[in-house]
Amino acid sequence: MTTQVSGQFEAVAIEATLNNLRINPPTDLMGSPIVAVTDWSTLPDPFSANLLEFRSDAGVRMAIRPSGTEPKVKIYLEQVIANPRGNLRNLRADSHKHLDSLGRTTLAWFEIDT
After folding, report:
1. What is the dihedral angle through the alpha carbons of 37, 83, 1, 57, rounded to the nearest 10 degrees?
2. How far apart are CA 52 and CA 28, in angstroms?
3. Prediction pTM value
4. What Å distances lie between residue 15 and 21, 36, 50, 97, 114, CA to CA?
5. Domain 2-108 class in CATH
6. Is the pLDDT of residue 112 over 80?
7. Would you kindly state where each structural domain of the chain is located, as residue ranges?
8. How far apart, in whole angstroms, are the C-alpha atoms of residue 48 and residue 17?
9. Beta carbons of 67 and 49 less than 8 angstroms apart
10. 46-95 per-position pLDDT tens digit
11. β-strand partners of 62
């Protein structure tokens, strides 16, 4: 399951929040411990990008980057459910709700006073 959310914020709020996430990354995504953090800005060219990626032990991946053309942050969310059991339609609906909630929570990180 994948989804994307975005929100418009002051450029200074976007940069400040991304810098803070680099220094103080979250320890979990909606209660699921983070097992990997990738700061793409530290990678060598041509891979370097203003992008932060977080992976949780529940199969959730979240990537955050600023838009290249407007004062907007983009958040890409993905959840992989290994060996799904039960009703696949219900699993997808639950995953969609979970990712939407995570997206809204993450957007709130950018709502800072500038």
Report:
1. -20
2. 14
3. 0.87
4. 10, 22, 10, 28, 11
5. alpha beta
6. no
7. 2-108
8. 19
9. no
10. 999 999 999 999 999 999 999 989 999 999 999 988 777 778 888 888 88
11. 54, 77
